[in-house]
Amino acid sequence: MPSDNVERVNITALAWDIAADIYFPPDFDRDRTYATVISAHPTGSCKEQTAGNVYAAELARQGFVAIAFDASFQGESGGQPRFTEDLAFRVQDFSHVIDYLVTQPHVDADRKARRAELSPHHEGLPDTGSQRRVPGLRREEVAQLAAISTDYYTRLEQGRIPASAPVLDALARVPHLDDAQREYLSELAGKDATRPRRRTRQVLRSSLQRVLDDLRFTPAFVLGRRMDVLAWNPLAAALVTDFAQLPTKHRNYVRLLFTEQHMRALYADWESVAHTSVALLRRQAAHHPDDHRLTELVGELSVRDTDFRQWWAEHHVANQRIGTKTLHHPVVGELTLD
């Protein structure tokens, strides 16, 4: 039982940790699951003030599990203090806290995760006939299929111990991960949030720009980290948008897909294109976990668009692939591009 019914935890975010206090009911039973409430502090406050000592403590007395956390750059959480509130980062803080909570055995939450997409029947496990609180495989079933102990798998899922390459390979076989998902799993497992990587400026070689300019009958643009649009040719500007008229930070393909109405009308299958772009962006997030601009982009789009927020929460990943796209241009009509 946590001391005084309060447990202090550090939640891994991107390049820093989020400090949080979990408040448990006085009669807390580890064998039960509880409705859990997140209590956030206002600007200029911290988790020990009203968010924790008043609201979270009272919720715990009423039988809930409650968690109060310090926002990024504030209190005991990491990040260089900014002396200003940033909505995008606050949204991401909530996302990281939720991601942590759904790994805890005492939290009663309907959640969509990879193991929720599987069924015991399809994996060759006996059907016990008992009703499942959430869809998919239970922890002990995942552990059984991966040939590891339930306790070991639980600690892995909660991020309390590292995973070896053979264990990761065994776990990847259980939900039948594809190549992109396997790479994503390995990158997440090997992420060192305490040592941010040095970011290099994205610079386009002049030779590549000349190649773009020589493509006089084909629209083309170059994407960099975060799917930023780094360069384009005149046909791409005419087809998609005049990138030169956009502020540099707004020249982002994913941002355009979700914030510009003409982009929704441009793609015949906008939902598929946009969904894939979110999976590509999440793959980038695993590869560059300390990229603050990527965090800001995800936070902004999560606030502004419900589709993005839902698809980002699915944790699907993809690698860049070649394909055919059908577009409806307001001037030239329907186009099919390879």
UniProtKB/TrEMBL annotation:
SMART domains: HTH_XRE. Gene3D superfamilies: 3.30.450.180, alpha/beta hydrolase, lambda repressor-like DNA-binding domains. InterPro entries: AB_hydrolase_fold, Cro/C1-type_HTH, Lambda_DNA-bd_dom_sf, MLTR_LBD. Residues 113-133 are annotated as: Disordered. GO terms for molecular function: DNA binding. Residues 106-182 form the HTH cro/C1-type domain. CDD domains: HTH_XRE (cd00093). Residues 113-125 have a biased composition (Basic and acidic residues). Pfam families: HTH_31, MLTR_LBD. This is Transcriptional regulator with XRE-family HTH domain. It comes from Halosaccharopolyspora lacisalsi.
